[in-house]
Amino acid sequence: MRDTKAEAGFLLKCSYSLWPNSKMNHPRNRKLPDADVTAAVRGWRTLPAPETWPEAGCVLCGAAAVGFYGKSDVVLAESVAYRNSTPRGHSGLALCWPCLCSFHAIPFGSQLSGGPSTVVHTWDERLSAHVTGRQVQRNGLLITAGAKPASPPPATAALAALRGYEHRVTAGVELLVFTNNNQDQVLTSHAVDQPLAEWLRTTTRLPARRTGFACLLRACRTDKNSGAQNLAWQVFHRPESLPGVLSSYLSDRTEACGLPAPESPAVAELTGSYLHEVMHMEEKDLAEIRATAQRIAALFKTEDTGGKLTGFHALFRAGRGADLRNWLQRHSVEWVLTRPQDGAPLITEHGFELLFSPGQDGNAWFFRQYLLTSVLAELHRRGWQPKDAKTAVEDFDPDAIDPADTEALEEGTSP
How far from 70 is each of 55, 86, 151, CA to CA, in Å? Predict the structure, then answer.
């Protein structure tokens, strides 16, 4: 096979980016008859005779090596600075036959783009089998059809795979993007830690989080990309931004509705779960924020207009921490005059420390975002609405979102 565009040209096409200068694609093949090229490729992929094996162990698993191998068999190593070339006088990597075959099988388990390829790596062996199996199935369609089927971006595919996984994730996940060709060798890695990977999985498995996750997808959507695509990018590049994305979404929705949005409790629950499970904030601190939110919600009266809620939103914008502190101190006086029988202050000393202390490991901003979502959730639970609110607000429908996002949401329900 000499044509990469032919139906049987899948491996030949892959070989240029994975195994350059190999027996399959060497420049001199143009001058050789088909029989000679076929024989050379078969010899390249045949187990070497035992008498030729070196007295060395495989560098990956320690089993008996069957030879030394370099760039034509092994794609990039751990560092992009390592160009995977065998230096003069060095025989290459000692590999056993199964490990060598795993390098030869890379195109079947990688997401192929025509340029750099992407593979999902994790030390969770059961998850690795799940993700690789999905990719092998996709590539099987590619090989059989002879044309590239519709395929999501690598990060989006990894997100869908995580959400469709049935078991607890026990290790982090990496997206390895690489090409081994002679012109532009690339290896980049984007990682998701185990807590975030497991949290993403629970957004399908725990019904209470599904509506909140639908809101997250909607918040990430842009005119250019679906919410699933943008969320996947943030998961692998800026995961710390997700609480802010949820808070901003809920603020915008509340202002558009003119009163606390119906999905406020779901967004607050999802935000709290992220802060506790992914960012490792203590539950007692989050409970303190929720208790403060309940007391703040009690300050909103039926005769209040929407302007009071809008002004409260504005206190949570970047750079307005001092204004929020002053608001809490001012309204603490009002709370004292109407405090409940339990005598609890509007905000405790510990609550102030969580929201404003620079010594809280930089988490004060996250606690303030959580306070906003918790107040909106509590106002919705209380049925509060300003006297000038709109007469009706439609409930949030998690199915009324972009079809691509719906597909990502429902990915975990299929076997």
Answer: 18, 6, 31
- Quick one: tokens of 286? 């989050």
Query: Tens digits of per-residue pLDDT, 134-151?
Result: 888 888 877 776 655 556
Which 3 state secondary structure label does DSSP give 47? coil
CB atoms within 10 A of CB 97: 16
Strand ranges (E), 180-237: 186-192
What is the 3 state secondary structure string of 178-189? EECCCCCCEEEE
User: Model confidence over 279-315: pLDDT tens digits?
Assistant: 999 999 999 999 999 999 999 988 888 888 888 988 9
> Using CA atoms, how far apart are residues 78 and 110, in angstroms rounded to an integer?
17
Measure the N-to-C terminal CA separation of the chain; round to a whole number of Å.
37
The DSSP line for 361-379 is TT-HHHHHHHHHHHHHHHH
Q: How far apart are CA 91 and CA 304, in angstroms?
A: 80
Number of CB atoms found within 10 A of residue 358's CB: 7
What is the CB neighbour count within 10 angstroms for residue 255?
Answer: 14
Contact predicate 193/269, CB 8 Å: no
